[in-house]
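Example (one chain per record):
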Amino acid sequence: MSPPEHDPDEGSGESVGLPITLIVSPASGRLRVLPPVRFRGGREWVEAGQPVARVEHGGSTDDILAPMHGRMGGLLGREGQPVKAGQPVAWIERGGEPSS
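Predicted structure:
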């Protein structure tokens, strides 16, 4: 059974009933991890719509965007690893950023 087609108008996050959101790949291809943009308190923080990784396929790329503001919890794949459309590739923890 193949994964469902990804609707580009839908968010790329999936709630799992915990205070985290899984970020899924919008397409099949090779995962490319983007460098962090902002650290505070020893943790990476992302904004909604910020690219956190990229998928390369057939000479083109699709950005994998953070669906919300939060703390980047971790990646679920490695640089260059093959991924499928809909596969979880990272997770974000909801919550406010610590004060400076």
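Caption: The mean pLDDT is 82.
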